[in-house]
Give the backbone structure.
Amino acid sequence: MSGARAKKIAVVAGDGIGPEVVKSALAVLDAAGADFEKVPLEVGLGRWKKTGQAMSDEDLETIKQCDCVLLGAITTPPDPNYRSVLLRIRKELDLYANIRPFHSFKLDFIIVRENTEGLYSGIEEVGEEESRTLRVITRRGSERIAAAACDLAAKRKKLTIVHKSNVLRSDRLFLKTCQKVAADRKVPAEDMLVDAVAYNLVINPGRFDVLVTSNLFGDILSDEAAGVIGSLGLCASANIGEGHALFEPIHGSAPDIAGKGIANPIGAIRSAAMMIEWLGEPETARRIEGAVEQTLLRGIATPDLGKSYKTADVTQAVIANLAKK
Ligand code: NAI
Ligand code: MG
């Protein structure tokens, strides 16, 4: 894999604070000596305003030809017929595993979210009086997300399967399938109803290690987990498929703070570290993660964490801490 050619990364900075935090992430990657070719793509609200389309088929082709994608955030265009760019990329590249690690000085757990089916199936009937969305759970989809979660849990402590099978019969298939995969792989597993997980994340988050769940539950629990950790701006994610991957902070485009230079870049920097690990440079990823921890330990942080440093200050501090290693 290594050495033959520089890896190609599609860079979708996007809208709002997306370009601000992606700039930080790229600066940190450069400083860490990560070697790759960047393919910038204008995708998102800005593009939609100019052309009426947030992403073209050609953009998608370009993305497919790159090794992976680094994405900032995309503002949803004000169009009732808009089809989410991110959902489209996740589906087209079959990025089924959404891995969301939550780290702080006291906490360390990972949410593994199924990323291609569930309530985000896209199968909908929309009417004036009645609208329906179909929740799709398949054995194959559940097996492969359970396998991805077990790969992580096998190196850690345990797996928690998150579901609502007491009410949603589709979740009985999800639960049973995940339990079987965990048993086959001898990974210690428990299961918990999603509402109880929501409660326990607040009351006793330290009890969790690796959680596996379906699409919508994972989406919601991730933002809750980010709140428990301290800020959405700290949290990173990977969207992984068989041959492709997309890395992005879990936050959106934060229009309320865009252009002020105060967005927390750590989620994007951590996403870049996950990307570089996936590309086969785990040592560089560990150096970046270490530099981030040093920066946070010294209290160099943006206003979302109660401090008054700017995006650029935090970025420079991470880069300076890289050099200290
Ligand atoms: P959001 O995640 O953009 O912001 C929620 C709150 O968290 C805001 O108060 C924001 O200021 C704060 N925040 C988020 N990231 C931060 C950071 N890095 N540093 C400091 N504070 C941060 O969610 P919101 O406001 O619901 O959505 C804004 C737009 O983003 C919408 O158009 C939404 O559709 C889109 N969105 C896009 C996502 C993506 O591209 N992956 C994910 C979530 C939302
Ligand atoms: Mg979300």
In short: The chain has a mean pLDDT of 95. Residues 163 and 194 are 5 Å apart (CA to CA). The pocket of NAI (ligand 1) is lined by residues 17, 21, 73-76, 86, 232-233, 248, 251-257, 263-264, 267, 302, 304 (CB under 6 Å). The chain is about 40% helix and 20% strand.
